[in-house]
TrEMBL record, chains A, B:
InterPro entries cross-referenced by the UniProt entry: DNA-bd_dom_put_sf (IPR009061), MerR-type_HTH_dom (IPR000551), MerR_fam (IPR047057)
One Pfam family it belongs to: MerR_1
Listed name of the protein: DNA-binding transcriptional regulator, MerR family
Domain HTH merR-type, chain residue ranges per copy: 7-77
Domain of life: Bacteria
Acyltransferase as UniProt keyword: no
Higher taxonomy: Bacteria, Bacillati, Actinomycetota, Actinomycetes, Micrococcales
Keywords, in A-Z order: DNA-binding
DNA sequence: ATAGGACTTCGAGTGCGCTCGAAGTCAAAA
DNA sequence: TTTTGACTTCGAGCGCACTCGAAGTCCTAT
């Protein structure tokens, strides 16, 4: 918390991170955040830049199909201190394998789709 | 239907296509197939090579996150004859855009994950 | 001071894509 | 011929990740 911290409302964070305010509250309920979100006057949430940074990373994990439960594990490790760094690294490395596999499958599927498209193109343009 | 056709049971198709027999029946119920699956003795399904080919392509559409409903549209077009080829081409082209976008987002996410991994590596290996 | 809108919690509802189970039928091997 | 196990239909159930709505509270601008 330095002087340069912008504390953001939930709506501002939703816009910056690209999810709904409902989803932000859901993630918090599920224990996916690294620490309790600050509150203005003990009710309205106030997010730090660090919170936003983590949420942005979280959305990348989701985008690469990491289940909520796995992200929860990762967040729990991160909350448990520095001696869980190795475990976190291993978790990310395992996830990395899955992402590479997904990219590979998608790329192969794209090739099949392109092949089909080429077929239609031939028959459509020769008309 | 040539002499060289291997008619396959649902279990054999499930194995070849990489989905469960339950899923195969579900796809059929949902109207995702191009034509009625043949039957042995009017009960047990018998799939042709063409059926398997379509199912393989169908799984690639699913793998690239095309919703069941869109696949249903595509199959309906394909069933409606040759004059829907242009419409099918457009559908596939639109889907292609989405696949490319997904690949791009995934690749960017992978970069973020790799960046995080590199950070852990530094701190873990310098110990 | 007051109005209006953004925020709060909490539980319930939704949509998608399967996945399962029951109850029964069929067919290939011994 | 009998048995075993793969097949059939049908409707219901499930898991995931949100998404929504109700009912109430708080902040900001006028």
């Amino acid at each position: 918390m330095t002087v340069t911290d912008h504390l953001l409302s939930i709506a501002e964070v939703a816009e910056r991170v690209g999810v709904s305010t409902h989803t932000l509250r859901y993630y918090e309920r599920e224990g996916l955040l690294l620490r309790p979100v600050g509150r203005a006057s003990s009710t309205h949430r106030r997010y730090t830049d660090a919170d936003v940074g983590w949420l942005r990373f979280l959305t990348k994990l989701r985008l690469t199909a990491m289940p909520i439960a796995r992200i929860k594990e990762y967040a729990a490790l991160a909350r448990s201190g520095d001696d869980t760094e190795e475990a976190r690294l291993e978790l990310l490395l395992r996830h990395r394998m899955s992402v590479v596999a997904q990219l590979d499958e998608m790329t192969k599927s794209l090739a099949a789709i392109d092949y089909k498209i080429a077929g239609y193109r031939e028959r459509t343009e020769t008309r």
